Amino acid sequence: MSLPTHDSLSNPIPSSPVSSVGGADFQVEDDTVRMTAAELPASVVTKKAATANPKAETPSPMMPPPSRAAEAPVRALRVIHVVNGEHFSGAERVQSHLGRCLPEFGIRADFVCVKPGRFAEMLEQRQGEVAGESWGECFRVPMRGRLDWTAVGRLTAVVRREKADLLHAHTPRTALLASQVARRTGVPWVYHVHSPAARDSARPVLNRVNTWIERYSLGSVDHQITVSNSLRDDLIGRGGDPDRVTVVHNGVPADRPQRQTKPYVGGSWTIGMVALMRPRKGLEVLLDALAESQRRGHDVTLRCIGPFETENYRAKIEAQVERLKIGKRIQWVGFTNDIPAELARLDAMALPSLYGEGLPMVVLEAMAAAVPVIATRVEGTPEAIRHGREGLLAEPNDPASLAEAIESLVTGQYDWDSLAEAAARRHETAFSDWTMARATAEVYRRVLQGRPIDNR
Predict the structure, then answer these.
(1) How far, CA to CA in Å, does 18 sit from each of 13, 65, 102?
(2) Which of 168, 264, 384, 451 is deepest in the core (most CB within 10 A)?
(3) What CATH number corresponds to the domain at position 103?
């Protein structure tokens, strides 16, 4: 058998009646932001990527209060995201949606990639696309390692040449780089916490190094964004200033592809896992649960969508599949650019993560596609999926618990249609890409409040 390889602050919103973000008014009622279709930018309303019912959008209440800077007519703010760039998994999908959506809120977002790889290539392929399709311009500032200080001068040159108003870093490596460039240029910077550095990988030494780099870098950070309440609590518990930490939940487009079939009790079920396959995603646990489902007589096929992080991990998984004798029950897809099309082929989406999740994008994408989710109670996942309502939750690193969740779905203990429709509704009201971009834009405005915008 041959498996695919890698390359194939928060404060409640104040009770002021009307605020403005990027030129679009929105009502503030009971700590909830509601934006009507008439108040959204016209291009947002007409794009298929926008939610079908913008009036129902309800972003997280964990947003900073509106600033006067958002109300004044100013030139588009220039934000440079500093990212790794080698993969295209959850964090990179967040970045791509921000690059696409932020211009609607008066923010031009471009990217500096410090590693060669898939995301940098995809950014360059999309440059020159029409508005709403481009993700922003890509600048390559390759680093030979985490402590390649020559990158500081090269990024400084980009920031000055492009007249950036703000830097937005997304990883410990890029946080270190952004902090040094901010000191040189006086440009403020924001850090986006996608997952806990201390639990981001299966390599303890690497986790400790990244944690130290992150802690050192964040001494000068102007503001931090976390993708879940759990990450915010974790950050504050480690000494973070609550007034400088904002929760902006991840968001994805409202993309619900047409299904050809629906599953039924007693029939064949296809469960998919969409991920960059690496140890913390828990694929080994899902394989054990699949074997248990097979022993119980359930007709379940696993469709694995995404590349492997390393060849060593691929070989380990291949050996487990052979040992469990479940090769005929698995379809290996590898990397895909069309997640919605793959989700349309699934009866459920499984994410058996062990740790290190902030708020998984693929969970939100499955919800948008009206695909029930079977996931583990890890980090921010339960903030999106409520057990028995939009999907099912199992205990992490527990094949028996995961097998039970699968069985409860395929045997009809939970109604598939009810779970699917509830998932789609919850995405629409809380986890759209426009909600995420609007909240991020407001963080930028808050950081820049009181600063001269065009100060170079």
Answers:
(1) 11, 11, 21
(2) 168
(3) 3.40.50.2000
Q: Judging by DSSP bridges, how do beta strands 18-21 and 24-29 pair with one another?
A: antiparallel
Enter the tokens of residue 429: 């009201």
Q: Are 200 and 285 part of one and the same domain?
A: no
Long-range CB pairs of 380-383, under 8 A, 24+ apart, other chains included: 380/227, 380/228, 380/229, 380/230, 380/231, 380/249, 381/351, 381/353, 381/357, 383/228, 383/229, 383/230, 383/249, 383/359
Is 287 found in the same domain as 230?
no
Residue 67's domain comprises 18-252+432-448
Does 92 or 15 have the greater pLDDT score? 92
Whether 263 maps to a domain, the answer reads no
Concatenating the DSSP letter of every residue in 386-422 gives PBTTTEEEE-TT-HHHHHHHHHHHHTTSS-HHHHHHH
Residues 83/156, Cβ–Cβ less than 8 Å? no
260 band by pLDDT with thresholds 50, 70 and 90: confident
The answer on 315 and 168 residing in a single domain is: no
Q: How many CA atoms lie within 13 A of 441 on its CB side?
A: 30
| 437 and 410 fall within a common domain | no
Which of 351, 356, 360, 368 lies closest to 423 in space, CA to CA? 368
Segment 14-29 mean pLDDT:
31
Number of structural domains the chain divides into: 2
Element containing residue 44 per DSSP (H, E):
helix 42-46
Q: State both tokens at 282.
A: 């828990």
pTM of the model: 0.76
Domain identity same for 438 and 294: no
Q: Which token pair is 40? A: 């959204």
Same domain, 383 and 439: no
Question: Do 199 and 337 sit in the same domain of this protein?
Answer: no
3-state secondary structure 134-174: CCCCEEECCCCCCCCCHHHHHHHHHHHHCCCCEEEECCHHH
As a whole number of angstroms, the distance between CA 303 and CA 274 comes to 8
Question: What does the pLDDT look like over 344-387, one tens digit per residue?
Answer: 999 999 999 998 788 999 999 999 999 999 999 998 999 999 99
Does residue 12 fall inside a structural domain?
no
